Amino acid sequence: MKRSEIPQQGILQGVRVVVCAVSIAAPFAGELMAEMGADVIQIESPRNPDYAHGGSDPGWMGDAMRRNMRMVTLDVVKPKGKEAFLKLMKETDIFIESSRGGQWAGWGLTDEVLWKANPKLVIAHISGFGQTGEKDYVSRASYDPIAQAFSGIAYANGDNTMPYFPIAPDVLDFYTAFYTSNSCLAGYINALKTGKGESFDIAQYECGLRTIHQYLLQDLVQDEPEIRSLWIAAELSGAFGNYKCKEGSVFLLTVGVPVCKAVCELLGLPYGSEEFPAGDYIYPLALPKGQKIDAAMKEFCLAHTADEVEDILNKHKVPCSKVITYRDMLTNRQYKARNSIITYPSTRWEDPKNPGHPITIKAPCIPAKAKNHPVEIWRSGVDFGFDTKDVLAELGYSEEEIQKFFDKKICVSRQDACRQYKHI
Q1: 229 — phi, psi (to 5°)?
Q2: Global confidence as pTM
Q3: Residue-wise pLDDT tens digits, 176-193
Q4: Active-site residue, selected from the candidate residues 39, 173, 219, 280
């Protein structure tokens, strides 16, 4: 697909973003801007394709997390590939890469080289441990669980009586993507004002560190490290956390004086008595009142379905939610009212039940719903190198020159990749 064929929609239409990375953090930062209307191109190395494409398995990451993007293969290290890359940079507003610290400088593609091609270019370097600091850290490989461990997030999600686990898969990849897209757009606004680009050094572990806030200060400043997160608080307070129901389960928070009062009244416990004094903020499990209210809540939930518990608690102004499954999302009233799960045809996969027709993708919506510049998903994730020829043609290369890129393996086709790489 050529740029002229991209639907003109969204508040970022006319902005070009180029991502040279694999996996989640950097490509997803680009996709966030693609969902706002930007022309986003992901460059993949012919020698190291993005495993998001999945190969013989469905590769749902590619379908769900490369939406509205164009895909190119280009070896930016080879001279002819570097030439094409720098041509592309001249027409690019934001460039995002992810690699070990110093990788691009080692290829001779420093910020200064990129700014020589385009002084207004906004650059983001994503790495596990940053571009600066101790050399042995800068050169380390890192993935989401490693960054969660080094950032303090895993520490916040455990204690001495239980293992220290990541809070969920890929959480820091997404945190990093959000920080990256926000920083890049701030840099882009400044470049419009000043004519001068910017370069961001984004360490994945620091994106996690930034989210810990009060728990770190509680330990380092107040010297009280006992409670590190709400999830541990859930184990220390009655009527707080996940409760099994007759069918399903709910998550609820009994925190704050009005909520404690409402929960006591609902459960038939004497709020305002010596046992449950008025003004209690939580009910610690270490105390008898915490154990009593916890037991009463367990009994109450087991006597009702999750839907019933959610309805009753919300009528009493107690923060709670049924633990919703993916299948629940398709029928939930609020999900349906806001169109939170959207559908669009896959560009990559045929429906096995309806040969010749694309499978229908069911995926999360675009969370930021713009009133004046509405957007939609016009394309699912596409295959490895799908748009290479179109993008090279946009840069002014002839059909003969483009064919030489493929002949010299500076770019590769899907078919060549399948023969060369077992995992594609």
Answers
A1: -155, 165
A2: 0.89
A3: 999 999 999 999 999 999
A4: 173
Active site residue 144: no
- Coil vs helix vs strand at 266: helix
Contacts of 301 (CB under 8 A, 6+ apart): 243, 244, 245, 249, 250, 309
Give all strands (DSSP E) within 338-381, no chain letters: 341-350, 358-364
By C-alpha distance, which of 179, 185, 176 is closest to 33?
Answer: 185
Distance from C-alpha of 89 to C-alpha of 43, rounded to nearest angstrom: 12
Count CA atoms within 13 Å of residue 234 on its CB side.
13
Determine contact, residues 67/379, Cβ cutoff 8 Å.
yes
Dist. CA 228–CA 208, nearest whole Å? 14
pLDDT digits (tens, 9 = 90+) for 180-232: 999 999 999 999 999 999 999 999 999 999 988 777 787 888 777 655 555 55
Which phi and psi angles does 138 have, rounded to 5°?
-55, -35
Other beta carbons within 10 angstroms of residue 197's beta carbon come to 21
Whole-number Å distance between alpha carbons of 63 and 27: 12
Contact 24, 171 (CB under 8 A): no
Do 376 and 37 touch, CB atoms closer than 8 A? no
